[in-house]
């Protein structure tokens, strides 16, 4: 609870700082504030409390995911000033919107009540619409913002309608009541309709196939930093929230919902991967790769009672690799008008460090040891085999092989093509963020139990 | 003192090489590879004196994963092969200059680190990590420092990577499946799992895919010749000399003990497939116009015979396989080095552009001749010992297969000698060919020395590996 308040206050402070003209202090102060919040939140692990009539629940699930979100936001905010160099006078807006987005994100995993959940998802979404359209002179960015807004508003409508139906069936917004209702007595039919609508809305937000059509266009059109945010933080948030919802409603849901989830998961993996193979634009490619990773993460929902720790591990591995990859992409495409692969030609020669980091991040996403992406996949496959989904695992393995195809396209461009431009010095913040993110990724690989044990 | 010492030396060596800068990189790498060789000799003496040099630490509690490094005669033999070849391979590269050599040599040491780890791991998960880890460095070595047309090199190397990665993933699924039954990845726990023969078959095939691609057996060999041709000489030596032994070793260490019923039931399919590779490799080798490609296909034939020996499930087969792995490791590195010596002087791999070298370079010619004879398993060379045992084991299972497999010697003699004739003999070549220099000579003499010494006196190695192979046979026959 205090995490939520602290971050909201930080956001407001940012706006006030602008009034008092201490623009330079905004980013450092925010980062320090966030790190302090992160430390304080982490001390709350292994405790459990509910506040405001069970509106917010602080258990291990919400606390550990909150920590992950705060960490990701720190990275994204650190990248903000150099990315928005030309709009430095608006820095307070960019930072505070990200902070408000973070409050929404935390509300989405810490909710104990569907009303709180909806508040969270709206705060997160509205911040994202604004960020997507934040490059207001660019037609593409405007298009992305508009598209995202229309699609997102639809999805929110579905979610709200679903919540209403669930309320109609159970008579409460409270998660514990909803959870108990299924075990005690038969639930009304419209509970299922509500749950389906809620799931459709969430799958929209996650960008799982067949609800993914908005993602590539929005990812490509948005400013690259926003794309980074959407494909790491926003995706992970939606995934965690969906997990929590399914876990609460699991006892009520019929067997067929498992089958449906499995189909969505297989479709997301496969279609995301196949589409990614054809992309020449790196942002689009990462968007499709994100769709396929969403498919992998959805697998965790098939064994919802035991795979909380694995989902946390998978999302952390994926998001950290994503941050590392995107900070390199941000640097390379900073002054370019597109993000095509040829911009990466010869990066291995012009800036070996960044090329090595991007390689590491892509290897992690492809699932190659010692990066944590590999461990995440192994744990996930192990869980699925335990639950008896052997076909699903084989399809996932085949997809991992396909994904090597497009990740290596980028690696090949960096190491085998000649550079199109001369080496120039890399701004400190890009290499710092990328290095820290990839090191954390590797550290997670070496100490997997650190995260796995939190939620078991 | 335990075997982790070796891994630490190699990992530190890789980092030190990277930090030492381009000028000193090759020498640093050589120093550390010699240190690793010394360490493995030291560990061998400890092992022979009966000390426990294994390591066992818990790494992850849930799922249960151990940092388990075991060592028996089998592992030690392969580790010795690796650490003995590494200094030779590094030293052999002193005649070439590589751009960004600190990256190059650091990657070599890192790859050796991963391969040694593969040979030592006693935990399936750790084993898999090392197995995969060895793939990344060779990918970059072949990609960045390889020769030939960049476009086709890129295609060949990516094909190689995707192929081997795909195979390994199915092995991983097999491991995870076994873990669900055993509750641990330790080899000693995994072999106690009770599986139906149907399950064993799937596990066996999962492993088989990984190993058949890496060895390679037909029809999974299509990546091999191109990669051997395009990779830099060092990369080819690492691939053919050590890396494919990883797969052959793994058959004995992991695949057969974990799925013995399937191995017995389908014995002739796998022996037959391996022997088919022998014949196929020999015939295709005839037609090759490029010396590196010819050697690649001859290697395909030889490793096919080794794989056939392992799948016979006889003590002779396993022992012959290990002996031949060592012999082939040294032999093939020598042959590829000879090809490299020629290409340093003539800058070509085409056999038609060679010839008439003998008159100009008598010393090189004699050394090359010995290597060629060793590769066709002339009695008195190390290869003969291994090949003899392999053929004997085939005869124990089926005389027909033994005869077909035996063609490898006849066919091998034919294409190797024909290649030697075309490359070395004939009228004096118009292009100047400097005879072998001191650095190159040292590498050649050591390799030939090893091949001849163990050809005449293979007892130390047989004594080293036989007890652990008997153990493997006992595990295979437990049901």
TrEMBL record, chain A:
One of its GO terms (cellular component) is plasma membrane. Its EC number is 7.1.1.-. The keyword Hydrolase does not apply. It is a multi-pass membrane protein. Keywords: Cell membrane, Membrane, NAD, Quinone, Translocase, Transmembrane, Transmembrane helix, Transport. The lineage of its organism: Bacteria, Pseudomonadati, Bacteroidota, Flavobacteriia, Flavobacteriales. Belongs to the complex I subunit 2 family. It holds the Pfam family Proton_antipo_M. Residues 113-403 form the NADH:quinone oxidoreductase/Mrp antiporter transmembrane domain. It catalyses: a quinone + NADH + 5 H(+)(in) = a quinol + NAD(+) + 4 H(+)(out). It is found in: Cell membrane; Endomembrane system; Membrane. InterPro entries: NADH-Q_OxRdtase_suN/2 (IPR010096), ND/Mrp_TM (IPR001750). HAMAP family: NDH1_NuoN_1. The chain crosses the membrane at residues 61-79, 117-137, 149-170, 190-213, 225-246, 258-277, 286-305, 311-332, 353-375, 387-408, 428-450. GO terms for molecular function: NADH dehydrogenase (quinone) (non-electrogenic) activity; NADH dehydrogenase (ubiquinone) activity; quinone binding. The keyword Transmembrane applies. This is NADH-quinone oxidoreductase subunit N. NDH-1 is composed of 14 different subunits. Subunits NuoA, H, J, K, L, M, N constitute the membrane sector of the complex.
UniProtKB/TrEMBL annotation, chain B:
It comes from the Bacteria. Keywords: Membrane, Transmembrane, Transmembrane helix. GO terms for molecular function: NADH dehydrogenase (ubiquinone) activity; NADH dehydrogenase activity; ubiquinone binding. Coiled coil: none annotated. GO terms for cellular component: endomembrane system; membrane. The chain crosses the membrane at residues 6-21, 28-45, 65-91, 103-122, 128-148, 160-180, 200-220, 232-254, 266-287, 294-313, 325-343, 364-386, 398-417, 438-457. One of its GO terms (biological process) is ATP synthesis coupled electron transport. Residues 123-407 form the NADH:quinone oxidoreductase/Mrp antiporter transmembrane domain. It is a multi-pass membrane protein. It is found in: Endomembrane system; Membrane. NCBIfam families: NDH_I_M (TIGR01972). PANTHER family: NADH-UBIQUINONE OXIDOREDUCTASE CHAIN 4 (PTHR43507). Belongs to the complex I subunit 4 family. This is NADH-quinone oxidoreductase subunit M. It comes from Flavobacterium endophyticum.
């Amino acid at each position: 609870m205090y995490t939520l308040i602290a971050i909201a206050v930080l956001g407001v402070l940012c706006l006030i700082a602008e009034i008092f003209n201490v623009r330079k202090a905004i980013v450092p102060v925010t980062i320090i504030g966030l790190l302090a919040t992160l430390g304080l939140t982490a001390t709350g692990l292994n405790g459990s409390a509910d506040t405001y009539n069970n509106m917010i629940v602080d258990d291990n699930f919400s606390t550990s995911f909150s920590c992950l979100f705060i960490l990701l936001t720190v990275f994204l905010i650190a990248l903000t000033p150099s990315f928005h160099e030309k709009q430095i006078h608006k820095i307070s807006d960019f930072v505070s919107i990200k902070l408000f987005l973070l409050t929404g994100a935390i509300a989405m995993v810490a909710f104990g009540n569907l009303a709180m959940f909806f508040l969270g998802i709206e705060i997160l979404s509205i911040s994202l619409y604004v960020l997507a359209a934040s490059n207001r002179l660019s037609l593409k960015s405007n298009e992305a913002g508009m598209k995202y807004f229309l699609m997102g508003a639809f999805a929110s409508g579905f979610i709200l309608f679903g919540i209403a139906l669930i309320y109609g069936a159970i008579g409460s917004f409270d998660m514990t009541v909803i959870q108990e209702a299924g075990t005690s007595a038969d639930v009304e039919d419209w509970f299922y309709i509500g749950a389906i609508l809620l799931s459709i809305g969430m799958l929209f937000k996650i960008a799982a196939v067949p609800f993914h059509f908005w993602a590539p266009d929005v990812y490509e059109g948005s400013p690259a930093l926003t794309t980074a945010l959407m494909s790491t933080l926003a995706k992970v948030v939606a995934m965690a929230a969906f997990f929590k919802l399914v876990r609460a409603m699991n006892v009520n849901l019929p067997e067929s919902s498992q089958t449906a989830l499995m189909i969505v998961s297989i479709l997301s993996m496969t279609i995301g991967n196949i589409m990614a193979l054809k992309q020449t634009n790196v942002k689009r490619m990462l968007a499709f790769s994100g769709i396929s990773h969403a498919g992998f993460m959805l697998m965790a929902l098939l064994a919802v009672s035991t795979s909380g720790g694995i989902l946390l591990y998978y999302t952390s591995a994926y998001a950290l690799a994503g941050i590392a990859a995107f900070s390199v992409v941000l640097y390379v495409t900073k002054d370019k008008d597109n993000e095509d692969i040829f911009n990466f030609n010869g990066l291995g020669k012009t800036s070996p460090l960044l090329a090595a980091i991007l390689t590491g991040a892509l290897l992690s996403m492809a699932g190659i040891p010692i990066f944590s992406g590999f461990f995440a996949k192994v744990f996930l496959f192990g869980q699925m085999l335990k639950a008896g989904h052997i076909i699903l695992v084989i399809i996932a393995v085949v997809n991992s092989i396909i994904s090597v195809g497009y990740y290596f396209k980028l690696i090949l461009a960096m190491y085998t093509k000649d550079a199109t431009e001369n080496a120039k010095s890399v701004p400190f913040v890009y290499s710092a963020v990328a290095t820290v993110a990839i090191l954390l990724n590797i550290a997670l690989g070496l100490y997997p139990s650190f995260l796995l044990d939190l939620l078991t | 003192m335990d075997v982790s010492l070796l891994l630490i030396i190699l990992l530190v060596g890789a980092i030190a090489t990277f930090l030492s800068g381009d000028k000193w990189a090759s020498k640093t790498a050589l120093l550390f590879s010699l240190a690793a060789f010394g360490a493995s000799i030291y560990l061998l003496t400890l092992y022979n004196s009966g000390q426990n040099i294994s390591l066992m630490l818990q790494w992850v509690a849930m799922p249960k994963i151990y940092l388990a490094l075991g060592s028996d005669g089998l592992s030690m033999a392969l580790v010795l092969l690796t650490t003995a070849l590494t200094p030779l391979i590094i030293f052999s590269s002193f005649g070439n200059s590589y751009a960004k050599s600190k990256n190059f040599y650091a990657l070599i040491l890192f790859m050796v680190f991963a391969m040694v780890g593969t040979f030592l791991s006693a935990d399936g998960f750790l084993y898999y990590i090392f197995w995969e880890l060895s793939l990344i460095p060779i990918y970059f070595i072949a990609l960045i420092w390889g020769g030939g047309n960049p476009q086709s090199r890129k295609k060949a190397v990516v094909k190689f990577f995707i192929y081997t990665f795909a195979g390994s993933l199915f092995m991983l699924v097999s491991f995870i499946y076994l873990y669900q039954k055993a509750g641990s990845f330790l080899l000693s726990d995994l072999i106690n799992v009770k599986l139906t023969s149907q399950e064993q078959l799937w596990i066996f095939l999962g492993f088989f895919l990984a190993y058949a691609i890496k060895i390679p057996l037909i029809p999974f060999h299509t990546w091999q010749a191109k990669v051997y041709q395009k990779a830099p000489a060092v990369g080819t030596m690492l691939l053919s000399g050590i890396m494919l032994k990883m797969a052959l070793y793994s058959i004995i260490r992991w695949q057969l003990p974990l799925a013995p019923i399937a191995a017995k039931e389908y014995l002739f399919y796998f022996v037959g497939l391996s022997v088919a590779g022998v014949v196929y490799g020999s015939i295709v080798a005839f037609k090759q116009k490029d010396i590196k490609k010819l050697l690649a296909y001859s290697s395909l034939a030889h490793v096919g015979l080794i794989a056939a020996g392992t799948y016979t499930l006889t003590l002779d087969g396993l022992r012959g396989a290990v002996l031949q792995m060592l012999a082939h490791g040294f032999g093939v590195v020598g042959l590829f080095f000879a090809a490299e010596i020629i290409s340093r002087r003539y800058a070509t791999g085409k056999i038609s552009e060679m010839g008439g070298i003998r008159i100009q370079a008598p010393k090189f010619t004699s050394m090359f001749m010995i290597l060629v004879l060793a590769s066709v398993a002339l009695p008195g060379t190390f290869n003969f010992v291994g090949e003899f045992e392999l053929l004997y084991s085939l005869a124990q299972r089926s005389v027909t297969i033994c005869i077909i497999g035996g063609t490898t010697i006849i066919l091998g003699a034919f294409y190797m000698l024909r290649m030697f004739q075309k490359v070395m003999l004939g009228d004096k070549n118009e292009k100047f060919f400097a005879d072998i220099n001191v650095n190159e000579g040292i590498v050649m003499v050591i390799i030939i020395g090893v091949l001849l010494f163990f050809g005449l006196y293979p007892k130390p190695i047989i004594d080293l590996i036989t007890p652990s192979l008997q153990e493997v046979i006992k595990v295979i026959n437990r049901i």
